[in-house]
Design a protein that fits this description.
The protein starts with a helix and ends with a strand. 43% of the residues lie in helices and 17% in strands. It has helices at residues 2-10, 13-19, 21-33, 50-57, 69-81; strands at 40-44, 61-66, 88-93, 109-111. It is α/β, with parallel strands linked by helices.
C-alpha cells in the first residue's frame, strides 16, 4: 500500500482532471443522472475530491474518503477554499476496501471511480 500512497501523493489528480475536462464532464453527467435528487453521498477513493466538490455545489451532503492522507488534506482545503465545507460530513483517510469506520445505511448513494 505504501507504493500506492507514494504514487498518489506525488500525482496531481485535480490538475489531471482540469487538463482532461472531457473525462470529468462525461463522468459527472453520468453520476448526476444516477443520483437521488438529494441526500448523503459517500465518495470512496475520492482523491482530491473534484467530483465531491461539484456534488456539494448541488447541495448534496458528502463523506469523502481516500487512502492517501495528502489527497484528503487537499480535498479538505479545497472544500474550505470553495466555501463548501458545510456540505461535508467527514474527510477520512481509509482503504476503500475497508469501510468499518462507517455506519451501515447512512448513505443514499456511493461513488467509487478510478481503478
Amino acid at each position: 500500500m505504501d507504493a500506492i500512497i507514494d504514487y498518489y501523493s506525488s500525482f496531481d489528480e485535480w490538475g489531471r482532471l482540469d487538463r482532461e475536462p472531457l473525462e470529468f464532464k462525461v463522468n459527472l453527467r453520468y453520476i448526476q443522472s444516477n443520483l437521488p435528487l438529494s441526500g448523503h453521498i459517500l465518495d470512496n477513493g475520492a482523491g482530491p475530491g473534484k467530483y465531491a466538490m461539484e456534488l456539494a455545489k448541488l447541495g448534496y451532503q458528502i463523506t469523502l474518503s481516500d487512502l492517501t492522507p495528502r489527497l484528503v488534506e487537499v480535498a479538505e482545503a479545497k472544500a474550505e477554499e470553495l466555501g463548501l465545507r458545510k456540505h461535508f460530513t467527514n474527510f477520512l483517510v481509509q482503504d476503500a476496501r475497508n469501510l468499518e469506520q462507517l455506519e451501515s445505511n447512512q448513505f443514499d448513494a456511493a461513488l467509487m471511480l478510478g481503478c
